[in-house]
UniProtKB/TrEMBL annotation:
It comes from the Bacteria. S-adenosyl-L-methionine binds at Q285, Y314, E335, D383. It is an enzyme of class 2 (transferase). The active site is at C410 (nucleophile), C410. Its EC number is 2.1.1.190. One of its GO terms (biological process) is rRNA base methylation. This is 23S rRNA (Uracil(1939)-C(5))-methyltransferase RlmD. Residues 5-63 form the TRAM domain.
Length: 452
């Protein structure tokens, strides 16, 4: 093997120059990058090499010699090992700048001349998440809830998750204590044995309704009636308690089958004055306060006058579609998860919206068909998952040529790629607006408007 500038277990003093998109400090040794966990730009640290590859190395910080003025005291130690909040040691204003800078860097690399505006952040960047998916495992013979140690499936016990709605943390502990009381065996990944795999909790930020889903390896859970009775008595906000069966050896959290144990088979919440029903298998934005900010950006960007046809691709439970329907002639939503489309239809009638239709399907297939049928959209809204737009989707946009594309992105890398592809059809973007949906983490959400 060729000689690398550093070797495993070597210790050296370095100055951190940058942060990767994953939040690791970057130092250079004769141009060779060193990724130092937990170190911040401007800091001088002693780095212990944990892995040396041909083109780069990873290191652990063993000593902080000069701290960045942006360094803040992290929360509990076990918490820092989970990777739930990889930017928690960086002051919040610096986190917002980091996100803006990440988008700028990716745009520059893709040769896109687009202004990136300062990230819109939160006043209280903790306790914001409305959803938790908590693994349950045996730790030293005791049923335990917490989170995995980074890059592993070793469960670290945790009671305070800091970025979640504190009412969710409380509900998780309530469920954990009942599972302990009735001696329900926790799931064991090694041999796919045991009963309880995950506790999934959602809480409506505006409605204060709680939904709890117990994800189990079998429908046969001992003492289920007692557990339901005690939970409903202990949690007055409980609107829905469900059992979800997942008996496969998989990292996917929810199985396909769900049974209602108490209340409804959905949760209700409000966004921008409309009410939404959310099924356990449907996507719903996890930061409701910032979702309103994000959607408002998208609505303002669409600049609807009332006579437009709008396509909302990747429409989920119809939150963006229905927020736009009030200002447009017609909205067409397309979404791949059937439960979410069902929710979207119910949500339309719940809010007396008659000019929104929803189709189940892959956005790339349905969009291609719409383009072939000669359907024209004045505004195309897209809000794809991390992998961005499928090439067939982009091709269909080139055929339909909507006047405006409003792109809500949760991954600036695929956003840059997709904007570059849309430029080929004559679209340009002037600016990008990041909105911080995930404080303390490295995730970046943003809105871009493309016009012809
Ligand atoms: N706009 C919605 C949902 C955005 S999340 C909101 O703001 O709540 C992205 C959505 O895309 C998810 O609901 C996911 O189920 C859906 N999805 C993923 N791949 C898809 C595809 N190929 N075609 C259509 N929808 C897809």
């Amino acid at each position: 093997m060729a000689k690398t500038p550093v070797v495993k277990n070597q210790e050296l003093t370095v100055t951190i120059e940058d942060l990767t998109y994953e939040g690791m400090g970057v130092a250079k040794v004769d141009g060779y990058p060193l990724f130092v966990d937990g170190a911040l730009p401007g800091e001088k640290v002693v780095a212990h090499i944990t892995k040396a590859e041909k083109k780069f190395a990873f290191a652990r910080m063993t000593e902080l010699l000069e701290a960045s003025p942006d360094r803040v005291e992290p929360k509990a130690k076990a918490y820092a090992q989970t990777g739930i909040a990889p930017l928690q040691h960086l002051a919040y204003p610096a986190q917002l700048k980091f996100k803006q800078h990440q988008v700028e860097t990716l745009f520059q690399k893709a040769k896109l001349d687009i202004e990136v505006k300062p990230t819109l952040g939160m006043d209280q960047p903790f306790g914001y998440r409305n959803k938790a998916q908590i693994p349950v495992r045996m730790v030293n013979g005791v049923l335990t809830t917490g989170f995995y140690k980074r890059r592993s499936h070793d469960l670290l016990p945790l009671e305070d998750f800091y970025i979640q709605d504190p009412e969710i943390d409380k509900a998780v502990l309530m469920v954990r204590d009942l599972l302990r009381k009735y001696q329900i065996p926790a799931y064991n990944e090694a041999d796919n044995s045991g009963v309880i795999r995950h506790i999934v909790v959602r809480r409506g930020y505006f409605s204060h309704q709680l939904m709890i889903v117990l994800v189990t390896n079998t429908w046969a859970v001992d003492h289920l009636e007692d557990i339901v009775k005690e939970l409903t008595e202990a949690l007055p906000e409980l609107a829905s308690l469900m059992l979800n069966l997942n008996n496969r050896k998989t990292n996917v959290i929810l199985g396909k089958k769900t049974r209602t144990l108490f209340g409804h088979d959905y949760l209700e919440d409000q966004l921008l004055g409309s009410t939404f029903r959310i099924s356990p298998l449907s996507f719903y934005q996890v930061n409701p306060q910032q979702t309103e900010v994000l959607y408002q950006q998208a609505i303002d960007a669409a600049d609807l006058k009332g006579n437009e046809t709008v396509i909302d691709a990747y429409s989920g439970i119809g939150t963006i579609s229905l927020s736009m329907a009030k200002h447009a002639k017609r909205v067409l939503g397309v979404e791949v998860v059937p439960e979410a489309v069902h929710d979207a239809k119910v949500n339309a009638s719940l809010n007396s919206i008659k000019n929104a239709e929803f189709v189940v399907g892959k956005a790339e297939d349905v969009m291609t068909k719409w383009a072939e049928d000669g359907l024209h959209a004045d505004v195309l809204m897209v809000d794809p998952p991390r992998k961005g737009l499928a090439p067939e989707f982009t091709a269909a946009v080139g055929k339909m040529l909507p006047d405006k594309v409003v792109y809500v992105s949760c991954n600036p890398a695929t956003l840059a790629r997709d904007i570059a592809a849309l430029q080929e059809f004559g679209y340009t973007a002037k600016s990008n607006q990041p909105v911080d949906m995930f404080p303390q983490t490295t995730s970046i959400e943003s809105v871009t408007v493309l016009t012809k």
